[in-house]
Amino acid sequence: MGPSMPFLPGDRSDYVLFHEDCLETCRRLPSASIDLIYADPPFFSGRSYNTDEYGFDDRWKGLSDYLDWIAPRMKEFKRILKPTGTIYLHCDWHVSHYLKVLADRTFGHTRFLNEIIWQRQSSHNDASQGSRHFGRVHDNILVYTMSRKYVWNQQYVQYDEAYLKRAYRHVEPESGRKYALGDLTAPGGATKNNARYEFAGMERYWRYSQTNMLELLGMGRIVYARGKVPLLKRYLDEMKGKPLQDVWTDIRPVSTSRQNLHYPTQKPEALLTRIISTSSSPGQLFYDPFVGSGSTGAVCFKLSRKWIGSEVSARACRASLNRLAALGCEVVFNSGRLEPLTPTSRVPEDGKRSGRTG
Ligand SMILES: C[S@@+](CC[C@H](N)C(=O)[O-])C[C@H]1O[C@@H](n2cnc3c(N)ncnc32)[C@H](O)[C@@H]1O
After folding, report:
1. Is residue 123 very low, low, confident or very high in pLDDT (cuts 50, 70, 90)?
2. C-beta 39 within 6 A of ligand 1
3. Would you tell me which of 87, 186, 198, 244 could form a disulfide with 155, CB atoms 3.0–4.6 Å apart?
4. Which residue, 188, 212, 238, sits at the end of a domain?
5. What is the pLDDT of residue 258?
6. Last residue of a domain, which of 201, 216, 238?
7. How many helical (H) and strand (E) elements, i.e. helices and strands, does the chain have?
């Protein structure tokens, strides 16, 4: 990994946690210094989340109170992101539509990349308790990039069985390899700059240049349907899987897993692994403005990304520091007064800070 973060006073590590409002941390960070942000703020749920150990308050005077709180933070997120940077903004039905408008204004609506629907659970069992609405089982994750030049590592998931049975139903007798047959004509025609030429007696726009088609033919990768229409043989064992789409149904919440630290709203590492792997490279700098139980820190450490986090709750700071220490990750803990501190020993037992914390 490259050198640490020279712009942070007291810098000793690639992992730094600030016990303070993320607005204050952002103001310490230079413009265009961060590669990726994942922001998982309070969702305007109107709830006070509390377990025996941890908790935070998500109750507000009203919607404008919440939006007035998040708007300046979002502006700062934009300022600190590099021109190649990306931000993931995690929310749910309470304010996703307001945050979309705010984020469109902040980052520019043309910089909107995706809205990911993360289905957290398959169903809510509250119909028997009188709920009269469809089960709310998904979160929304809004993704914006700072420019067209952003990091993108395509992710793949397993094909579903029905698709495999349908598409990869051919088996090569000599090798036993399963394959699908794909169209070789180019759907976009001339508009997509595809080459038009005669192949196998048919004049068409083709997906590949004439040279590549001849090469594929030579490799035995082209077969003729009904003895006439050329089709491409795609072997299953060469495929990476199905490119990941924007509806994620394969990641379960932490409640039943060993990761569960009983931090309310803790996000699964699988979700963050997917986000961080897609939109950053090893050695790049990640910022989490709402650290909670430290899920992003743990994943950044495992994926060799540098990490800065902010968290207003002392108990959450403690949970994160302990979680990262258990992984062998050395974190510089900064109480907000810019003194580098060591983990755990200097986190106050109950450090409720004054002022609105979210
Ligand atoms: C939804 S939780 C984050 C959960 C986290 N992603 C995880 O996996 O554990 C939001 C967190 O933001 C913290 N928070 C609220 N307002 C904040 C602020 N202004 N600056 C930093 N942290 C804040 C809360 O204390 C809470 O821990």
Report:
1. confident
2. no
3. 244
4. 238
5. 78
6. 238
7. 8, 20
**Is the CB–ligand 1 distance for residue 308 below 6 Å?**
no
Asked if residues 314 and 17 have their Cβ atoms less than 8 Å apart, the reply is: no
Say yes or no: CB of residue 279 within 6 Å of ligand 1. no
- CA pseudo-torsion sign 161, 164, 170, 174: negative
Q: Is the CB of 85 under 6 A from ligand 1?
A: no
Cα(333)–Cα(339) distance, integer angstroms: 8
Residue 163's domain spans which residues? 158-238
How does strand 170-171 pair with strand 178-183?
antiparallel
Instruction: List pLDDT tens digits, range 216-243.
Output: 999 999 999 777 889 999 999 999 999 9
The kind and range of the H/E element at 209 are none
**Residue-level pLDDT at 346:** 35
Rounded-to-integer distance, Cα 197 and Cα 203, Å: 5
Tell the residue nearest (CA) to atom 13 of ligand 1.
Answer: 290
User: Ligand 1, atom 22: nearest CA belongs to which residue?
Assistant: 311
pLDDT at 217: 95
**Is the distance from CB of 39 to CB of 290 less than 8 angstroms?**
yes
Is 105 a domain residue? yes
Residue nearest to atom 2 of ligand 1 (CA): 292
